[in-house]
Specification:
There is one protein chain. The chain is mostly beta strands. A hairpin with a 2-residue loop joins β13 and β14. The chain starts with a helix and ends in a 20-residue tail after the last strand. It contains 3 helices and 16 strands.
């Protein structure tokens, strides 16, 4: 007797293959990042029920204060714009939420940002200022968007919707997923891959409730918990 569930699964996989859509589950071991393991350098992050966290600050910047692999995932509910809003350092008004990788310091890191308004898209950029290491030094300089090898559109976020955003970086290769569907794949370059630094999150003018996970490091590290360096000079 044929199993209807198996038939449905086969049809879904066949349709995905025909459309060129890639679905993938996160690899390796993951752990939930609680509020106590986040160093917030700008804005505020509050605890919610269970493992969930919330942000309603115009600008939020934070990094995971533990040794991890370069894999990060956030499952979030978008609640709309923040009560107060502020412009970016460039003067542009933008609403966005995203992930940070290899955050060596505020002037040197990799971003995978889900832009919400005024345009809905996933943008990967490298901020690189080799001789500068504080926000006062580099400000809004050094950003370079990375052209993907493959990319697909992300859904337009609407208030009340829940999605998962995940980024996994291995050497120069970066893969970004939305709801386990790959939306960005590419090479970020050797300069970005050679940066040493933690994972993190960033939001601008977006109100969110979320659960954050990070990939466990495959090897132990003596500095698994570093001192939290907060303040304007450490905010990217």
């Amino acid at each position: 007797m044929k199993n209807p569930a198996n038939n449905l699964l086969k049809r879904a996989l066949l349709t995905s293959a025909m459309l060129g859509v890639t679905f993938a589950q996160p690899e390796g071991s993951w752990f939930t990042v609680g509020r106590g393991s986040l160093c917030v350098t700008e804005g505020t992050i509050e605890k919610a029920a269970g493992d969930r966290l919330t942000v309603d600050a115009p600008k939020m910047r934070a990094y995971v204060n533990a040794h991890t692999s370069q894999s990060i995932e956030v499952r979030f509910t978008y609640r709309g714009p923040t009560r107060k809003e502020s412009a970016l350092g460039s003067g542009e008004q933008r609403r966005q939420f995203g992930l940070k990788l290899r955050a060596h310091d505020p002037c040197n890191l990799v971003y995978a940002m889900w832009r919400i308004d005024p345009e809905s898209k996933l943008v990967v950029s490298v901020k690189r200022n080799p001789s500068q290491h504080t926000s006062a030094e580099c400000g809004n300089s050094g950003y370079q968007n990375v052209k993907p090898r493959k990319a697909t559109a992300v859904p337009r976020l609407r208030s009340g919707e829940t999605h998962t955003l995940r980024a996994e970086m291995n050497k120069t290769e970066l893969h970004v997923f939305v709801d386990d569907r790959q939306v960005w794949e590419g090479d970020v370059g050797s300069e970005a891959a050679n940066l040493e630094g933690p994972l993190g999150i960033r939001s601008d003018n977006a109100s969110l409730e979320f659960t954050l996970k990070a990939g466990e490091s495959p090897t132990p590290h003596p500095d698994s918990v570093a001192a939290c360096k907060s303040g304007p000079e450490n905010s990217d």
